[in-house]
Amino acid sequence: MSQALPPPIWSRRTPASRPPVSEEAIIQAALGLLDDAGLDAVTMRGVAERMGVSAPTVYWHVTNKDGLLDRLYDRLCSEVPPPPPGPWQDRLRSLANDIRAVFAAHRDAARMAIGRFPLGPHGLRVTETALAALADAGLGDEDAVHAAHLFFSYVTSFSYQETILPARAPAGDRAGALSQVGQYLSSLSPDDFPHLTRCAAALSRPGLDRRFAFGLDHLIRGLRPT
């Protein structure tokens, strides 16, 4: 960065003395909760208990749960590496795949990201990277913003959908759940559902990398200025 960023707009408190823990330690504890127990477990009290401190100590640093999640989201954004130099399309593909990988590495991360604007330093860098690629594509400011929203919405919603089992199955057994879906679709009458029965295997295939790439490629093709 050419100069220091202004403080993020999330709220801060400035009493006379600091509590004996750091904001970084609080966010690391929140990340551990996210990975171990999911988003619903990431509460102010949960973080305090994980750290062995009082809840007011956590509130001093982050004020409320939204402040905690804003900081946690920025921590996740710090794991997204900058794409290597290259054509704007390749940079967007690299960025999309790296974001998806971060979401896959942390339980409920995509769910937490939905609807949350990244205002921390790492999140700003990710957004700047996408906008720079879209500017290189020849889009004006307004269209670049719309395109960036579409791009991040696709990556985040796809990543979130990957965490949802499409049918009842043992916890985390996505392949088993998809197998149930495939068997059900295959049992339908081909006279009534000719396309569904013909596509049953493709619809219930466990690996989603190819589907993600298919959607991403078509999205990027559509971002060229008209």
Q: H/E order of the elements?
A: HHHHHHHHHHHH
Number of strands: 0
Beta-strand percent range: under 5%
Distance between the termini: 33 Å
**Cα Rg:** 21 Å
What are the segments in which pLDDT stays under 50 over at least 5 consecutive residues?
A: none
Largest sheet report: none
Number of separate helices:
12
Shape: flat
Mean pLDDT across all amino acids: 89
Provide the helix percentage.
55-70%
- Helix/strand class: mainly alpha
Structural summary, described in words:
The chain is mostly helical and 226 residues long. It contains twelve helices and no strands. It has helices spanning 23-37, 44-51, 55-62, 65-77, 88-105, 109-113, 121-136, 141-161, 174-186, 194-198, 200-203, 209-221. Helix 1 (23-37) crosses helix 4. The radius of gyration is 21 Å and the shape is flat. The relative contact order is 0.10.
Question: What key phrases describe this protein's structure?
Answer:
226 residues; mainly alpha; 12 helices; 62% helix
In brief:
The chain has 226 residues and is mainly alpha-helical.
Which secondary structure elements does this structure contain, and how are they paired or packed?
Elements: H1 23-37, H2 44-51, H3 55-62, H4 65-77, H5 88-105, H6 109-113, H7 121-136, H8 141-161, H9 174-186, H10 194-198, H11 200-203, H12 209-221
